[in-house]
Amino acid sequence: MIDSHCHLNADDYRDDVDDVVARAEAAGVHGILVPGIGLDSCERALEIAARHPIVKVAVGIHPHEALSWSDLAERKIREWVALPEVVAVGEIGLDFYRDWCPFDAQRRAYADQLRLAKELGLPVIIHDRNAHEEVLGGLAAADLAELGGVLHCFSGGPADAERAVGLGFHLSFTGTLTFGKGKADRVLKRVPPTVLLLETDSPYMAPVPHRGKRNEPAFVAHVAEALAEKLDRPIAEVHEMTSRAASRLFGFDEEP
Ligand SMILES: [Zn+2]
Which of 74, 84, 199, 205 has the least C-beta neighbours within 10 A? Predict the structure, then answer.
């Protein structure tokens, strides 16, 4: 299994990140993608990846930190992408649910980083909350179909999902799949299962039976089980299919 979105660089793991990675490996996780939020969190992700070969990194400025998007940030991202463990630009996007950062600053950081990803030839990791129309519009305008990427913690409806897939994008789902029926059920009926990725979005979104606690990549197994149940496919097939999608997109090894 591959946890395609996990914030091991968050302070929540400051004291035990190595144990958390070891538990993930013991649970059958053979790849973890850690996205940056701002420059410090990108640095921290790179430190962790340097110690753990199963960890890969995305570098970018999150919409909540969009005011820190600057020439310096762009320069750092250009430097980091030369490292073999850096496989994507992210996480980037728009968050109109929380107004922690002025929307115009978010729009500027998003558009600039989409252009940068295209120039650098890397896939993107997209954060989208209450901004489906503008997020998808940005992806279409940036013409990223050949590089693609993922709409992480996908929260759009079936029509948004179809549009995203038409633009060459993958969708990933978190522990919310274990919470029962929801919008995701309708989305899963409308998209080819080959575009699906697993993620935990740790430390958030812990799946049942860990709901409400700190999440960690070992728990991606519960997300896989819930997905298998919703797709009505054998769990082994879901492991294989999602690993193949993550390998294609981010260069992880396929299921060992
Ligand atoms: Zn995230």
Answer: 84
Dihedral sign for Cα 91, 93, 95, 100, please.
Answer: positive
Give residue 188 CA to ligand 1 midpoint distance, Å: 21
- pLDDT tens digits, one per residue of 165-178: 999 999 999 999 99
Neighbours of ion ligand 1 (CB under 5 A): 91
Residue 255 falls inside a structural domain? no
Q: CATH number, domain at 38?
A: 3.20.20.140
Q: What residue numbers bound the domain in which 233 lies?
A: 2-250
Whether pLDDT at 59 is above 70: yes
Over residues 113-126, mean pLDDT: 98
Measured in Å, residue 27 CA sits from the centre of ligand 1 at: 22
Give the global pTM.
0.97
CA of 124 to the centre of ligand 1 (A): 12
Does residue 256 lie within any of the structural domains?
A: no
